[in-house]
């Protein structure tokens, strides 16, 4: 999957972190930059830079939170959805073709396994984030030590 994410990011002219950010926003709808950073294991400063670049490129837009005026939420633009559809259309066709012969029960089993795999990877990522830097006694980066990524590698969606 990392190879596909790398190839997709190169094709789109984005960093892997930008692709992962767009993927997460597309799956979760309007989220705060703080929530994004926590989910992706990216510092607040790093997340601000990513959101700024994606907004300038027309892929994300900021909007005020409906219930808390202190918060800003980001959401994917329709333009970004179209770009993703174009970039991932081939993959979606291949998946549809490969999965067309599967029974509904098999598809439920596959979906269940993938959900469990995502959970396990996320749990392991949370453990790793809390550990000192390998080979040192250095604590993890303070911003990353507080994060709780939901998944180590979100799969791009449209």
What is the domain tally?
A: 1
Could you name the CATH topology? Arc Repressor Mutant, subunit A
Oligomeric state: single chain
- In the CATH hierarchy, what is the superfamily? Winged helix-like DNA-binding domain superfamily/Winged helix DNA-binding domain
Share in β-strands: 5-15%
Give the termini separation: 16 Å
Strand order of the largest sheet: 1-2
Highest-level CATH class: Mainly Alpha
Q: What is the overall pLDDT average?
A: 84
Envelope shape = globular
Plain-language structure description:
This protein is mainly alpha-helical. It has a single domain (2-145), classed as Arc Repressor Mutant, subunit A, CATH 1.10.10.10. Helix content is 62%, strand content 6%. It is built from 7 helices and 2 strands. Strands 1-2 form a two-stranded antiparallel ribbon. A hairpin with a 7-residue loop joins strand 1 and strand 2 (72-76). Helix 1 (2-12) crosses helix 2, helix 2 (16-28) crosses helix 4 and helix 3 crosses helix 4. Residues 146-158 have low confidence and may be disordered.
Write a brief structural summary:
The chain is mainly alpha-helical and 158 residues long. The chain is built from 7 helices and 2 strands; from the N terminus they run ααααββααα.
